[in-house]
Structures are given as C-alpha cells and as structure tokens.
Input
Amino acid sequence: MFGYKKNNDSGIHSWPVVIFIILLILSILFLAPTFGVLLSSVKTTRDIALGELWKIPNELYFGNYVEVLSNPAVGQYFVNTLLVTVPATFASIVLGSLAGYVFAKLPFRGSEILFLILVSGMFFPPQVILIPLFRLFNSLGLIDTLWPIFLVHTALGIPICSLLMRNFFSTIPAEVREAAILDGANEWQILTRIALPLSLSALAVLATLQFTWIWNDFLWPLIFTQSDEKRTIMIGIVNLRGQYTVAWGVQGALSLIASLPTILIFLFFQRYFIKGMTMGAVKG
Amino acid sequence: MRGLSWTPLIKASMERDKRLWRIVLLTPPLLVFSVLIVGPLLSSFYYSFTNWNGFSSSYQFVGLSNFQKIWTDRLFFQATVNTIIWMVSALLLPTLLGLVLALLLDSKVRGGKFFKTIFYLPICLSAIVVGQIWIWIYQPNWGLLNTLIEEITGERFRYAWLAKPDSALFSVIVAWSWQQTGLSMVIYLAGLTAIPSEILESSASEGATTWQRIWYIIIPLLIPSTVVVIALSVINSLKGFDILYIMTGGGPFNSSDTLAMHMYNESFKKYLIGYGSSISVVLFVIALIIIGIYFRQLRKFDQIYGQ
Output
C-alpha cells in the first residue's frame, strides 16, 4: 500500500508485514489513552496527584474498585442510566422503523419532503432546543425525574433511525410485500413479520449507536436532574470531583466500570454491525 | 402482480387501506418529533426576541436587540470562528484517519479483528472519560505528552497545552479525533466489503498499481460510505459540547469557546435566556446552511451515480 511498487508478486508478499507493523504502532498509540484510565484505577489518588499516573505500578491498588463497588450511590447511577438508555434505545428504533417503513414502502405525495425535514433533524445542535425543553418539562413537573431524558433521547433518535430503516426497507423487493398482501397480510403484519426480521443487522447497528450515545450522554442529565438519586453514571463520574479534592483513582475505576456496557454491546453486535452498515447505511 | 387484472374497486380499497396505514404508522413518530423537537425549536425563535431571564414570570419583547447585541459581542465572533474550526476539523481528521485505517485493515492483515476492536474502543467511552484521560495526557508537569517529549529531546518541557489560548482548542480536537476515528473506520470497512472483488482483480490484471487502485477505483466507490461518515460526523461534532465542557470549559480566555458553549454560559450562568436563545437561532441557521450544502451535494451525487 505504501510506496509506489509495481503490483507484482514479490511486492505483495512484503506488504502484510509492513502493514502489520504500521497497524501495531498505531494501535499502541490508540490504546495509550485508554490504558491511562486503567492505570489511574489501580493507583491511589495521592500517587496520581504526585504525578505518578503514567508510571507502570510496582503493585496494584484495588481500593478504588472496592470504594466504587461499595458505594450505594454508584448502583443507583447504574440503575438510572439503564432505565433511561434501554427504553429510549428501544423506543427510538420502534418509532424510526414505523416512519422508515412508510417512507420506503408507502410513499405518498410530499413524503420525500417530509422525510428530508425529519432527517435534517439530526443535523442541528441539540443545545438549540435546550431552554424550551427545560421550560416544557418544568411546567409538567418532570424536572428531576428520568422522564425528560428518556423522552428527549427518543425524539432525537428518530431521524437517524428513520433514515437507516428506510434505506434498509427499500432493499426489500416490492414483490415480497405484494405477495404478502395477496395472502391477506396487512401493513402491520408485513412490517413486523417480514420487514423487521429481514433487517436484523440494521437493528443491530442502531441498537449499538443509540445505546452508546444515550449511555454516554452528559448534557441532558446535567440539565434535567438535580438530586443525586436521579443522576446518571456520567454525572456520577463528574460528581466524584469534589469542590477542592478530586478522587482521581476512584474516578478512574468508575470510568472503567461505566464503559463496560457500551464495550459489551459493541462486541456483542459487532458481527451484524459491519453487515448492517454495508446494507442499510452505505446504499444511500 | 402485473399479470393479474385488478378491478378498480379492489384498487380503490387498497388505496384507502394504504392511506389509513400511513396515518397509523406515521403519527407516533411525527407526534413525538413535533412536540419535542419542532415545537421547542419554534419557541427558541420566540424567546430570542425577548429579554426573559429564565425564572421570572414576566418578560418584554425587545425586538431585534438581542441580535444587535450579537454583532457587538466580541466573544460571539470568537465562538463562531471556533465553531467553524471545530466542525471542519472534527469532520476531516477522523474521516481521513478512519479511511486510512480501513484501507490498512482491508488488506486481510493478521490480527485484523483485534486491531479493529482497538481502534473502535474509544467510541465506547464517554466524553467525560475521554476528557479526563486527555487532561492527564496534556498535564504540563507529568502528563504523557510532555513526558514523552522530554524523553525524546532530553530537555525539560512543561508546556500547558490546555491552558494556553494558542493550543487549547486544537488539543481538544486531537482528543476528539482520537475518539471518533473508529466510527468512520467501521463504516469505511463496511463500504470496502461491498466493493465487488472482480473490479479490483481486473484492474490488477491490467497493471494498475495499488496506489492507482486506491485513488481511482476504491475511493470513488467509497463515496456512498463517505456520505454516511459525513452525516454521522456532523451529528457527533454538534454533540462535541461535552468534551469541550470537560476539558477546557471554553477557556482559557474563551479561546476554545464554541457557539454551543457560549449559549450555555449566557443562558445558564448569566441567566440571559433571551440572548442565549438568539445565539441558538444563529447556531441553527449555521446548521441549516450546512444541511443545505450537504443535501445539494447528495442530490448531485445521486444524479451522477444514479441510485
């Protein structure tokens, strides 16, 4: 790949080694920051404050993990984050599938424009609607509950979910739908029994992306919750930074634990991910 | 279907069915979208013409004075420039790096799956975690970056990357790119698997060099993937508020302030909701221009490649 070698046999054989070495160096560079979190989680906050963070430790200190896992607030943060992330991921995919199905299989006059408006919803900065949303939820008495976070993430996920599901549904041949209709199926049955089962990889892509985005979100929980019992895990990590003291080691341990769900989700859906991206997203 | 002779009656009833299903299926998503996105967007426009402070029950219409204030707000100008720098570099760096990684990984190299997971890993981390790690990397006295520079040059090096107006924004962009590269890599990898191998083989047999193959065949065929990468990058870069908030808070001396940050500060720290809303409106207009350009290019692309 690198160098302007003629594409003959002798050239090909030396490449894998070169590419392997390049990838190895890049992956070490890429891994270094993540490794930093790992290091911080097995050091005392005092050591980190003394500038020992990037030194390989002689002995591992597990006190941070003990402290995190024995802290009842941390469990609450996890429960809250799950209570928001799982339903919002699910709801946005369901709503996106409904819209995507209509745009792909039941187009009507003006549906292109409507689709464009919906999709452009994913391009504008969410901060723009922050103030009105706060006012809306405040008047409904929902501030400092998990509802606003769930609702906002559901709504913000609709554009990307509609886009991907529409692209995916359009790859299903029209004959399939027509045959089902002749057999007496209605649109709901076609969507749930034919279209969705044929789109599992798109669903996997959306589940991964939405779960990751919502789980990691910081802005909306920051705005919509106040009491510690309603905070999510990302706010929890920041809250460990007290006014004057920073429990860095504990923060590192919590950061690592908080990243596990999203890593597991990716590893779990990885196989479908590439396939889903190929079929749904890339065929514009 | 064409072989069957449909009576007009059945056709009409099917058309009626279709109309009913459109309403049934589209109402829930459009309702949620309108109430939670379109409605608030419109009220943001409304607040931008008022002097509302966020908690008092009364406020006045102030016409265009919020927008006039924008023109005299030196910080606003700085924030706009930074927003543009942020969006452009947050788009280019991860896209290019992701493309290079995808091309390298597509060569069926040993351990490809392992490398892919490593490059994707940062996407799984939150802005909070990423921000904290990179604060430690940029730490002037014992941070990883300065330690490495000291090791290599053998001289004392204590540059405070995040505390200097010259480097603060750029330093955050590097951290951001590190995190986002994995996503564009995955999408490009998907795009690469969709390229028929016959095309590559026939070009190889006609004596094209690898470089020519990448430049004239692979990259043009990856345009659909690029469309997706750009869309996701723009979405994500607009979410870039979190990492800036953690790493610099817009500082030092507002040198890494973006419009979203400026809006946040004016609205929630100074309680100038009216003025903050007018900043949102400008931010929205900028986003609208970008959407417009994007869709125009998309349409042009559709015409050329005929989907």
Observations:
- Residues 8-47 of chain B form the longest helix (40 residues).
- Residues 73-305 of chain B form a domain with the MetI-like fold fold (CATH 1.10.3720.10).
- Chain B touches chain A through 112 residues (CB under 8 Å).
